[in-house]
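Teaching assistant here, posting this on the class forum so everyone can see the example we discussed in section. The complex has three components, and the goal was to see what a joint structure prediction looks like when all of them are supplied at once.
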Amino acid sequence: MPSNNAKSNMNTERRVFIGRAGAAAAMLTLAPGVRLVDLALARSADEPASDQMRWGMLVDATKCAQGCTECVDACNEEFGLEGMGRPKTDAQYIRKIDLKDKTTGKRYSLPVMCQHCETAPCVDVCPTGASFRRVDGIVLVDKHICIGCRYCMMACPFKARSFVHENLTNQVPEAPRGKGTVESCTFCVHRVDRDREPACVEACSKAGHEALVFGDMNDPGSRLSQRLRQLPNRQIRADLGLNTGVRYHGV
Amino acid sequence: MRAATAVLSWALICATGWTAVAAADTPMPTPPRGKGEQCVEPTDVMRRDHMRFLTHQRDETMHRGIRTKKHSLVECLECHTRKDTQGKFLPVNAEGEFCDVCHDYSGVTMDCFECHATTPRQPKPASARFPAELGSDISFRLRIAP
Amino acid sequence: MKPVRYQTLAGQSGGYWILLAVLAALVAIGYAAAHYMEVHGHYVTGMSNQIVWGTPHVFAVFLIVAASGALNTASISSVFGKGDYKPLARLSALLSVALLVGGLIVLVLDLGRPERLIVAMTYYNFKSIFAWNIFLYVGFLLVVAIYLWMMFEPRMNKFGKTAGTIAFIWRFVLTTGTGSIFGFLVARQAYDAAIMAPLFIIMSLSFGTAIFLLVLVAAFEWTGRPLDDDILRRLKNLLAIFVSAVLYMTLAYHLTNLYATEHHGVERFILLEGGVYTTVFWLLQVILGSIVPLIICFSPTLSRSRGALVAASILVVIGGLAQVYVIIVGAQAFPLVLFPGMEESSTFFDGAVNDYAPSAPEILLGIGGIALALLIAVVAMRVLPFLPERLGEQPSATSEPVTAEAATS
């Protein structure tokens, strides 16, 4: 037991140290394509998620290419969303929306996924608590206790959720999903917990667009926070006061 | 009289111990051996409590983001799935495979695999795989210890 | 007051057995439909990721709302002390339990994971109105069951008023909870309105009274029990008031929505351009489901006809289903507005009006729910004395004290 305490103290100290150093390093050195999840956030497998941080994302619509679906494809690959050839019932965690300003005719293209709201309507309405918000801000569905009532889908202002309409086989080990439950973007929580960034962000960078920035909104030194300070940005349906974790620039 | 005999023989079975009777007369399930010498817990503990470990790990991972490997279902697959003659993984719940043998025997339905993968992910290029975990299992093990 | 004698259905006639068989067959078909949906998944239904609540929810919500309203007659007799309705209080309470069970079964069988009902009973999120409703529904069954016991057991009669009052309050809370399922949805243009709760309460009064009237007439006529037109006239007047009130609340709801310019899109959709939803709204809900019944009820000649009254009640039921359809499906058909002022398009049907066609399994499941409610009522009336022997001012054949229950051995 003492050794365990010592270990966790050490962990905390190490984290604080690395946090500061990492924040400083991030401000100085981060270049595109380098590991984007700040070192400060690294935690070992036995440590729970921390309420000190809030994962978030910035979508830079000025860099998002019309017709490009790299992020969507990467998501489908990551979660094994194969589709049954039935567009109306096939799951989509992230989708590209094309916008056209009715007044000016200006066109935009951007991805929309679960916005990981601070006050998420899906979490409020879920009768069993299967829809929940992790302490670090990621909104998830616990499919073990989801009864498939779909009230969350009625409540979500972003249409971010899908319902599994059929029996599935050959699921991806890290992304369990099955008939009769509701699902949505998880911010790739299985990657984030292992200090990697979401698949869509990685794919967007790889394609050279850099339209998606992921990181800790609570860490002023994170690349995400810096970008959010630099670029004017907004929330979708800001009128609902949901304090979304996904922000948009350039629309 | 017949009732008395039945009660008596039932009492006798209880007294001599179920296992003794089972060992003598009852065919026992023989699931295929997993990889390695030893599972993450002693075999009799796993037999009795694997569902508790899995449920505990499920809640820890789902709600708190704890990703230790010891009682992770994904890790179970690593050792307990077999390959067919063409080198393709057989689903762990397929007939005659690890989960199925005992669950079929005991008549206990599991719905784990309506959502969870039944085989390990086929190997991918190194860059796409998850990095090895750095943390240890100490705190987790302490928490579940009886 | 004259003594009331209750009598079970004889249940010997061929007609009774045919009715029982038909209802049981419909229930079996409904269950088979649900089983089919569960085995294959919901892709075999009309629902999608855009229309997530479809026809089963329409039937379920209709039945649950009507269940609360079916208790009207009992409430009027016990809470408001109108003795004329007292003989019908048992039937009224029975119907409300039966309708609620029918509605809940449909709701549960349409879940993605109906076998996890136990999860819904063991994990609660008390911020969710759904979680509250689980208590409200189960509690309602319990409260009405106790109320029935108070009515059946002569020694307990004196508690009838108290039990009736509790049931009366409970049903208002229950319908408020049901309406709030929609009222609390901030995301959708057509919902997010506090008026949903009172609207649902008024709807419950109207639908429940119509169903009660239908069952009452059928039960009395098919068993040859004398039924005084006086009680029907009163129920007809009640129905007319409730139907008018629903119309008024509907008007208020749309006017409230129209006040905010940002909601003009969805209002234009429902009221003018929504295709099938506009038709269902105007033709089924407003004209056939409200105005025609009102004409029948207020017409001095038509309202004397028992047949016309039955027709009016059937129309109210159809109009009610239509209204719930527009509220549930119509509201989802209208696309969510993510970016006001923009035309949206995507592979996920953003910005597009979502189409929905009820599938056979969904409709059969819904009908199965109605059949189950009626089956419960028909069997219960056979087993226990729910129905009075006669109703009205005709000279009574007996002069026994009030407590005289018709023993059925």
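For the discussion questions: Chains C and B do not touch (no CB pair under 8 Å). Chain C has one domain: 6-388. Think about how each of these relates to the inputs above.
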